Queue: 2 jobs
Job 1
Amino acid sequence: MPTVEEFINSQAEQFEEELCELLRIPSISTDPAYRGEMPRAAGWVAQHFTSLGFAAEVIDTPGHPLVYAESPRIEGAPTVLVYGHYDVQPVEPLNLWDSPPFEPTRRDGCLYARGASDDKGQFLTHLFSARAWIAAEGRLPLNLKYLIEGEEEAGSASLLPFLSANLQRLACDCVVISDGAQFAPGQPAITYGLRGIAYFELLLTGPSRDLHSGTFGGSVTNPANALATMLSALVDEKGRIRVPGFYDDVVPLAPRERRQFAQLPFDEKQYLRQIGVSGATGEEGYTVLERRWARPTFDVNGLWSGYQGQGAKTVLPSRAGAKFSFRLVPNQDPAKIAAGVRAMLAGLCPPGITMELVEHHGSPGVLVPLDSPHVQAAARAIEHVFGRAPVYTREGGSIPVVATFHDLLGADTLLIGWGQDDDNTHSPNEKFSLADFHRGIRASARLWEELSRLPTSARL
Amino acid sequence: MPTVEEFINSQAEQFEEELCELLRIPSISTDPAYRGEMPRAAGWVAQHFTSLGFAAEVIDTPGHPLVYAESPRIEGAPTVLVYGHYDVQPVEPLNLWDSPPFEPTRRDGCLYARGASDDKGQFLTHLFSARAWIAAEGRLPLNLKYLIEGEEEAGSASLLPFLSANLQRLACDCVVISDGAQFAPGQPAITYGLRGIAYFELLLTGPSRDLHSGTFGGSVTNPANALATMLSALVDEKGRIRVPGFYDDVVPLAPRERRQFAQLPFDEKQYLRQIGVSGATGEEGYTVLERRWARPTFDVNGLWSGYQGQGAKTVLPSRAGAKFSFRLVPNQDPAKIAAGVRAMLAGLCPPGITMELVEHHGSPGVLVPLDSPHVQAAARAIEHVFGRAPVYTREGGSIPVVATFHDLLGADTLLIGWGQDDDNTHSPNEKFSLADFHRGIRASARLWEELSRLPTSARL
């Protein structure tokens, strides 16, 4: 019999091939055109758990289906819940992809495809590690539960009702999520903080039809003018958000965190080169890492109005719209922020304009205690496989479910991303390093061993 | 032999049929996709002048061709230059048209098609009136020259070089243009003032590719945020334009003009209903007519950035763009305005953003003296045919060539629009009243007679 690690090393090609299979399914959750692909992807995932001897099912929801799976019960052993998502981001603009987004392509040691890093390639490491334990040892050292959803990129609307209705079933000692990045190539990280989000769509209507800007201009409020004015009023000239009370509940960065961040080997010049800007910008008084990880933001995500074609058209548009979002930091309440945004925009909306504000999704930020035994177990597993102790970082993105797990299951979440910052997770040419994929599988297998040694909660 | 008026009355159906022929040619000047249609339309126009015995030619330009035609020379008679344009506005959004824009359709006494009122239906009245004179009297009572261009909706780039190179050929006592609206149905107008325009496109680039707004947000200047801030900084909260020096050269409304405007039978409630807004808005201290006719404006004509599809996408966009324009009033210099806009935007452009400003087109506003014999002749012709004296109005739109005619040819322009304000000239469902079309032909025929009695300039 091979060891767990030997089995994993022998299966490298097989694991890659299975990942490619899943990547070929275009499971874009936000676009109704791909609705039929979602059950296909969910079925693929469930079937792979069933083949391990797990109890797995595809659970229908009003949105896209969830996959839930459980390993055969070992009494007295700790229980870990793995969370991931099989849905992916849209792929526009398609012309900027060097290879088609749903035809996985190997280049320079990476696999290029939409979802390679976010999150298909990452959550599968925890499935393949379980397979390795069963193949090498005949059994897992602990209880594993898997919750793989299909609406993470679309606001996870069906997840909360499922969690609320299945608290007993989902009970666990801790949650494991790999849906983010290492600190740098070769420098793994445990992420102990996440930003939240509050995402909106603002639609303004002025005249009932597009008008000639010469004949009518000056006598009608232009919704595109109003949109620019309303959006710009949400921030001041230093980028500080002007929504009343916005900063009231922000947990400030601790001096210890700032020292720790400052010690990280962060190459600002390389970072700026990577994103193609000539100089650093952002909120005054904070470093680049602090701005990305621990300070709230306001970003316009989309804009549209009037004539977008070639040349000039002298139109006074009937409508204008924007998508925009705030990244939130721990202790900011998305509902309170949404109420503040709504009230402020209503006050800013000029005469002659009808405003509609859609709240797309909101989730709070998260901080995980660094001194928990689960975090320390993850650190040991990662150091063993990567040959280097993880650094403790925060992350600018949002994984809404982490706060929910804390609130509903009382469980800490281990955020151990195997990706890299330049994986282009929401851009053209998404990729995942194959070396990271295989290290992730080995670290996951080691994590099951480390966690199996911890006491389990009396609750289970 | 019939009289001129009898001939016109007998040809109503024929004139409508010929107008429909020209309307079926989709001569959209701003869209390169329709480039091949422009020579077709120009050829149609030239051929209709040739068939009257005029010397007519299609003149190639670096853009779209011009049509120039002259009636057989009558020594000692006054000379009138008719200006019009055969190009039309784009038709988007296509789904809002009740009948296809290039299939002319009669409904409720109107002809619906792109270009029906702006300007094919209007300039053809002056061709058909000449045909009536020749058919009824065997000759025209004066010299007519016609200049029909194909780039009016695209900035008239080829017109100025042609005018400058043909000053002798184009010499005239006055210019006649029908490319606007009457004051109201049944209330014709002579327009003695036009607004100018300065039209821009602003393109902002931030990071070299779209980024994940969670991972990167806060550390990168967002070009869509910057666009909103820069555009909104161009106006204050009262809609007053903040470009330095913008109002320096504005000719204020004369007390006599304000009194005259106030006496016009303008129904504000009906106007607001027509454009579908609940209340009047605009610059403080001015009436709706004053704001539309005699005050400068700032209107955003188009906006685009990031994700415009369904649902939410957490993108920090690489680029953002806007089309916007200022309507100018007499004495404001478009070049001076453009320089001010460029300097102001350059000062507003935040770190991390690269700005490109495209100047699409600019033209000054115009005021025509009300007491000229040509204006009085036009008033008599109109009153004869419409049974009602024209009112003297200004117009919010721009006909850039009017200022050019004044500067280069030293000629007054008679602006006698046969259209209506609700003709949807730059919107879906453009239309032209058939009654106005036929009255326009009769009034034009009468105008040739009135103008033929005036002395001609020694210059000719």
Note: The radius of gyration of chain A is 23 Å.
Job 2
Amino acid sequence: MAVYTIVDDTALETFLERYALGNVLSFAGIAEGVENSNYLLRTDQANYILTLYEKRVDPTDLPFFLELMETLATAGMNCPLPVMARDGSVLQELEGRPCAIFSFLDGTWSRFPNKEKCRELGTALATMHLEAKVMRRHRLNALGPLAWQPLFSSVKSEADTIGVGMTQQIQDRLDAIIENWPTGLPEGVIHADLFPNNVLFIGDKLTGLIDFYFACDDILAYDLGICLNSWCFEADGSFNLTKSRAMLKAYDKVRPLSDAEFKAIPVLAAGSAMRFFLTRLYDWIHTPTDALVSPKDPMEYWSILRFHQSVSGTAAYGIDL
Amino acid sequence: MAVYTIVDDTALETFLERYALGNVLSFAGIAEGVENSNYLLRTDQANYILTLYEKRVDPTDLPFFLELMETLATAGMNCPLPVMARDGSVLQELEGRPCAIFSFLDGTWSRFPNKEKCRELGTALATMHLEAKVMRRHRLNALGPLAWQPLFSSVKSEADTIGVGMTQQIQDRLDAIIENWPTGLPEGVIHADLFPNNVLFIGDKLTGLIDFYFACDDILAYDLGICLNSWCFEADGSFNLTKSRAMLKAYDKVRPLSDAEFKAIPVLAAGSAMRFFLTRLYDWIHTPTDALVSPKDPMEYWSILRFHQSVSGTAAYGIDL
């Protein structure tokens, strides 16, 4: 939940003169996204999202994110479409922050998406990977495999506070992932953070993919690993193979996965689990105990990581090669 | 900014079966209000606000607040109308919290409202005071004059941290207010927190009065004191007599003020300044320095308080008796 920058009504009025969006009916900060300030803007023409980019976002990355959203939305995907100002530009400034306005997407997100939603997600993810091929801009994955050892080293001295012997166990599992990390798999632009709270539905129909601010270039099937982890584990920590199969088959139908990609799923998913485990561990250690926003428990992802390192093949994900 | 209770999509779906509001298009926590969790709910029929009442609100006060909003909205005022569930009830429960759904009001609030907006506010405030006369329920002002000395005593030992000699100055000014507090003035239901962020406008037309959760029974003209303080001082601390006159005259046109009420304005406004000074001082002292939400500077209200105790009569507010 986040509104870091307050936008004055006078500042808003002056700012909106740069656009042709109609008369403002309402304007409210919304509690979505943790990196930026987001406002829901209603005019007599439509609903929009105004995003102000806060300090954690590197301004030099913004043209990449905006190109990606524009590429996907104009290809017909349900993604926020950056709205052009009267001068044709998309990136603006407000209250000293870079900002942009986007089309608003209907829909709500589901904490535990069902099988139909997992299928829709698979289709959308593959479509996104295909449509993003025309991207001119590119962005390295700042939280990819190369970042994991330095990230772990920075918190190593405190890792045992979450469990006896954890420091050694994390190092061993990290080493195993890095040793087995696949090469030669198809790469391209991935979302890299497509958790259920970033996907909107009306009923079981997917109506929105949002929050592209971790998007980057990496192994395409790694995005599937991220989605398997965040969509197919139940509240009790169990893995739902039916949902996994639905997601993978729907993906494969749009962008056929090679055998090499299928076989790499356990290590890609384990790598994704390691990435979220490590960033959560970092936040866990660095968040003051009396902070208003509670850090997420890293151990959820530790258990997911162990699952992927325990499976013997793709059958565990509902796929028979 | 506040969303304290997270509402699950499944919980929402089940909850909304109690209502006939149409199909959900979107649902987002909004960063308004500091006491409760507020969600903007869009359906294919209309926009609504879902409010979950958090711990700081006494559940026994809720019927009073809901009756007030219903009374004003059905009288044609631009106030949130509590929406009835299928069974005819208004107060419901969700995620273990009392809650209610309200009609959504268009408009945005103005940080520094102009003279026309002050006039609109005066008209709306007087109308509210008249329309609320039919209220069956009543509520004592928990932050009225009787509460100020105990509130001050609870922070007295730390009051000098905001300025040398402040402890004695606060006590002297508080004593002066209490000694001169008027009796016999018309009483009724007041809003008690009608700051600019609780009043919505489209252009200069008032479209919404919101956040009735400090409403209570007290001296009606005390509500004017609260509004003079929060609407008529400029960013540099100066008092704008033109705005004050516009507000008071507009009020007087709808509910004529007696000479006694006019004459009591300086002390009522000073009392209001003391009330907000003391609660801000309390928050200032009790908020951890690393908290995400910064407490408001109490000294803004100290300067307002000094203004009202320095004036010699109603002419300072633009009124010639």
Note: Residues 1 and 32 of chain B are 5 Å apart (CA to CA).
